[in-house]
Amino acid sequence: MLPTTDFALLRRLAAEQASNRVPSLVAAVVRDGQIVWSGARGRVDGMVPDNDTQYRLGSITKSMVAALVMRLRDEGRLELNDPLDKHVPGTRVGASTVAQLLSHTGGLTAESPGSWWERSPGGDWAALEASLSPDEVKHRPGRRFHYSNVGYGMLGELVSRLRGRSWVEVAHAELLEPLGMKRTTAAPSGRHATGYAVHPFADVLLPEPAPDAGAMAPAGQFWSTVNDLARWTAFAGGHSGEVLHPDTVEEMRAVATVDDGDVWAAGYGLGFQLFRYGGRRLAGHTGSMPGFLACNLIDPVSQTGALALANTTSGAAIPSLTVDLISLVEEHEPRLPGEWQPSEVDPALLTLTGLWHWGPSAYHLRLLPDGLFELSPATDSGRASRFRPDGTDRWLGLDGYYAGETLTVGRDAAGDPRHLDLATFIFTRTPYDPAAPIPGGVDPAGWQSGLG
Fold first, then answer.
1. Where do the H-state alpha helices sit in 46-115?
2. Owning domain of residue 356
3. Contact 310, 325 (CB under 8 A)
4. Considering the domain boundaries, does residue 3 fall inside one?
5. Phi, psi angle pair for 266, to nearest 5°
6. Distance between CA atoms of residues 83 and 78, nearest Å
């Protein structure tokens, strides 16, 4: 970062720590998968915390559990529409699907019955399961967004059942070690911050308990560092290595539900929280446990993200701080547009590009540098989608209205492209080409110059 950017970021961090009386606060900015700035204020054991000091992540743990579930889906071990009961039979709340649990739309109670799990030693799965009566389903599954820590406790058990070992062991083997997150652990290890409550009317501290949450641990157990959380922030932006395909991470970032009405500013995907701010769509997660606050967010388009970790129960506006760090970087050092360069393409595909018509509406088919096609309306209104190859003369929709639909190229006797069949919609080079299989046929009189 430039010196002016560095100072602006540090000042924002310092203002947050001082004005909200945070014992210690660390933060970083991530760009293109790497830390480009980090800062710290306050003290841990009398010293300024560094990028290797552990803080508790709280609910950021959920996005990691979600990644383990998506790995199982990609392997064919489960379907997102499977009810929980298919893989964890016998629960009294097993009608909710895997996707609904991931997106907090399963209707389950927010907190586990009994003593508040975040400050109490957690029981095992049998104890959690026994505590869940049918009354703990608060809403019809799929009806609405209702944040549920219990749902993620169940997802952790699902991972354990299908892998045959604890979800923590699975996370280390399949997620943390491959991503180089060696300082992310289920219990504090090495140098770590103590969680505190700050007295509302005096500058004194009260240590908070940090027990093992047991079966509820998948909802908020992990501890981590700036260095490790930066890697996870890059993961959320698509730098997923061999852990998940970037397309799966993109699926996790897609909006599954919103939690604030018709014009949404906050929502949830499959394990990621989503925020819209300043024309950007940010993905990541917030975290809160007694004594700790955390947040990591990234703009997948600009590949600029930020994270912050604090050891205070409340008071600090950590999500706002994280968003502000991203905004400051984009304001002071906006990304330069990528340099255009010619790309290598299959010449045979050029015959498919250009002007096509759906009825009288004009569309352009463009060949993209990554080998994809983009079909978009020639005007500002209409349906646009990208497509990837799916066999000879077959293309699969990736986004927009035609996501998951198949585009097939129809050719004439000479082998030249004559029409496109996209989910029964026929696109032709000229409007309503009578030589193409237009649904319902074309009036034999053709185009006419006046009203009948």
1. 60-74, 84-87, 98-102
2. 347-428
3. no
4. no
5. -140, 140
6. 10
Whole-number Å distance between alpha carbons of 73 and 69: 6
Q: Alpha-carbon distance 33 to 331, whole Å?
A: 19
Overall number of domains in the chain: 2
The DSSP 8-state label assigned to residue 236 in this structure reads H
- Residue count (the chain): 452
pLDDT in tens, 60-95: 999 999 999 999 999 999 999 999 999 999 998 999
Same domain? 326 vs 357:
no
- Tell me: do 282 and 363 sit in the same domain: no
Residue 361 parent element (H or E): strand 361-367
> Do residues 186 and 327 share a domain?
yes
Please indicate, yes or no, whether residues 320 and 352 belong to a single structural domain of this protein: no
C-alpha distances in Å from residue 218, one per residue of 135, 211, 271, 321, 449: 22, 14, 12, 25, 69
Q: Identify the sign of the CA torsion 385, 30, 27, 207.
A: positive
Question: In Å, what is the CA distance from 10 to each residue of 17, 28, 233, 432, 440?
Answer: 11, 10, 20, 62, 66
Residue pLDDT, tens place only, 210-262: 999 999 999 999 999 999 999 999 999 999 999 999 999 999 999 999 977 66
Give Cβ neighbours of residue 17 (< 8 Å, ≥ 6 apart): 24, 25, 41, 42, 310, 316
Burial class, 114, CB count within 10 angstroms (exposed 0-12 / middle 13-18 / buried 19+): exposed
Alpha helices for 103-245 (secondary structure H):
125-131, 149-163, 167-171, 226-236
If DSSP codes are grouped into helix, strand and coil, which group holds residue 246?
helix
Residue 406: exposure state from Cβ atoms within 10 A (0-12, 13-18, ≥19): middle
Residues 282 and 393 grouped into a single domain: no
Cα torsion 125, 127, 128, 129 to 10°: value is 80
Residues 315 and 355 in one domain: no
Question: Is the same domain home to 214 and 178?
Answer: yes
| pLDDT, tens digit (0-9, with 9 covering 90-100), for 352-372 | 999 999 999 999 999 998 889
What CATH number has the domain bearing residue 106?
3.40.710.10
Residue the block writes with tokens 């059942």: 161
User: In terms of domains, do 227 and 125 share one?
Assistant: yes
- Token readout for 247 is 């397309």
Q: Which amino acid is at 225?
A: T
